[in-house]
Amino acid sequence: MNRQIRLAARPVGFPKESDFEMVEIPVAEPSEGEVLTRTLFLSLDPYMRGRMNDTRSYSPPVPIGGVMVGRTVSEVVTSRDPGFTAGDVVLGFGNWQDYALMTGKTLRKLDPASAPVTTALGVVGMPGQSAYVGLLDIGQPQPTETVVVSAASGAVGSLVGQIAKIKGCRVVGIAGGDAKCRYVVDELGFDACIDHRAADFGAALARACPEGVDINFENVGGAVLQAVWPLLNDFARVVICGLIAHYNDATPAPILDLRAVLIKRFTLRGFIITDHNVRLDDFQRDVSAWLREGRIKYREDIVDGLEHAPEAFIGLLHGRNFGKLIVRVAL
Amino acid sequence: MNRQIRLAARPVGFPKESDFEMVEIPVAEPSEGEVLTRTLFLSLDPYMRGRMNDTRSYSPPVPIGGVMVGRTVSEVVTSRDPGFTAGDVVLGFGNWQDYALMTGKTLRKLDPASAPVTTALGVVGMPGQSAYVGLLDIGQPQPTETVVVSAASGAVGSLVGQIAKIKGCRVVGIAGGDAKCRYVVDELGFDACIDHRAADFGAALARACPEGVDINFENVGGAVLQAVWPLLNDFARVVICGLIAHYNDATPAPILDLRAVLIKRFTLRGFIITDHNVRLDDFQRDVSAWLREGRIKYREDIVDGLEHAPEAFIGLLHGRNFGKLIVRVAL
């Protein structure tokens, strides 16, 4: 049998567990050109909150009763695509379920001997590529510039800061709580990390950025962006990669003095990583090399059991994960 | 004697006439390398409001008691720079006064036979260059795209729209009142122009942009920007050239849903034209050619008498001018 987690109701504000439902259906048989896969790992990412809304976006919403979407690392069970055989480990959109049918051309084979397969969902996957493209192509960091990155211990933020260090920048993270902040400085090598929950957050951030801020890599929005705003230097780049504070309508739009965009000649730019696949090879080459050389580290937060995916995803939206959130589906 | 208009007090909100004072002092004598000029025309521009504040900006503020700054078209009276002789007509920063001492290297000679000299303050001057660089370099218009430009009958907006038409765009202006809107459509050739004072402004703007908006060339901010925001298409460019609604602290920051920056991959960018002098020759060549070919038109709003400059400048901030605002100083 195949367990699926489906969207039961469109969330109002933060999702509740009752917005999801688990159903069991028979495992399907692959047609010609299809591959039946068993899900090993499911990636949980903030963008999924947007897919739960019935609003215009860059991707269609998950319909009510539809299986929640998500990237997976899976094992091929039965293949009717000549490019795959049983036992192959593949990256694809297997979604929130035990088994998936996918066409071969949507899959990429992984080599478990070369790297832990979960990294294909994180540091060498979509979050890593977001960090790479957002920082390098949109942020365009120059040596000695100051980069601020929010959600600094997360899948994207942790890599943004480490790449910025490699590029010679001063890097200040923003994260929630002492443990994450210590990790960001002690393990990842950021120059500083400020707890956005602290009472003196804004003042502490300003003290950590004595030369102002040249690049703000934004994963959060809300009060975090509002605190960075007055610190931005002339010609600052604000890279909008994520706005998790706003995904649940829990945070009003931050009040940003637009005059600063003009007077200080800011560039704000939002991006969606799937528009930037032209850079996939560069990203994989560089990040794989940095990993081999020990110049970047990553951290995974692995939750066991598909049935815990809704709870884990809700936790992600509250910042309760610590590192790239992944569900181990095949136990 | 030389009449000067000086900054008497830093304005709170909209400037009042009492924030300026006129004084008369003897005309100064030029030192070696200097040129004594008599002001023919003084340009009044929204950026001057920023110079009246004692806040960090891209240029230092005018000190209390200092002469208000401004570009001028002037006639050389006495020259101690071998590059200039009495009678030459020059463009420079002569400021709000009858006579100015300027060093020769800050001046550019104008040829009154080739074009009306006032155009050096408008369509072929700083406002024109702002339109050219902001639209072409920052906005990057493509044929058939929709461009919305606010303050559409003004010195910058009127040229933005006409260049966008030359580039094959659909162009929708925003202006204050029927007369300006009619001028923008009937004389300048925009596809539509919407009165931002009309009760149904937002709905009318949406109707005028059936394919959405690809470029918003923003001169105003406030409610005008807020009305354009939901109409912006994927990959829209928001060019922040001016934010006159905010210069007098009369308008709160508009509430802009930042999620649209991410989901629709907007680019917002502010610019100050003096950073873009590398494009000065291209601008002058292209706009001069378009003027000769009759492909662009311009309108000047000329006020007689230096003593009326404060009143005219205050009117500019309220949108009471109609076309490029210039003071004829030498009557």
Write a concise synopsis of the structure shown.
With 331 residues, chain A is α/β, with parallel strands linked by helices. Chain A has helices at 47-51, 126-139, 155-166, 178-187, 201-208, 222-228, 259-263, 280-292, 309-317; strands at 2-7, 20-25, 34-43, 72-79, 89-92, 99-103, 108-110, 146-150, 170-175, 192-195, 213-218, 232-240, 267-270, 300-304, 324-328. The first copy, chain A, contains 9 helices and 15 strands.
Query: Total domains of chain A, how many?
Result: 2
CATH homolog superfamily of the largest domain in chain A: Medium-chain alcohol dehydrogenases, catalytic domain
Overall 3D form of chain A: globular
Please state the oligomeric state of the protein chains shown: homodimer
Assign a percent range to the helix content of chain A. 25-40%
How many individual helices of chain A?
9
Rg of chain A over CA atoms, rounded to whole Å, is: 20 Å
Largest interface: A-B, 34 and 34 residues
CA distance, first residue to last residue of chain A: 15 Å
**Unreliable stretches of chain A, pLDDT < 50, 5 or more residues?**
none
Structural class of chain A: alpha/beta
Number of strands of chain A: 15
- Average pLDDT across residues of chain A? 97
Q: The CATH topology of the largest domain in chain A, please?
A: Quinone Oxidoreductase, Chain A, domain 1
Strand content bin of chain A: 25-35%
CATH class of the largest domain in chain A: Alpha Beta
> Could you say what the CATH architecture of the largest domain in chain A is?
Alpha-Beta Complex
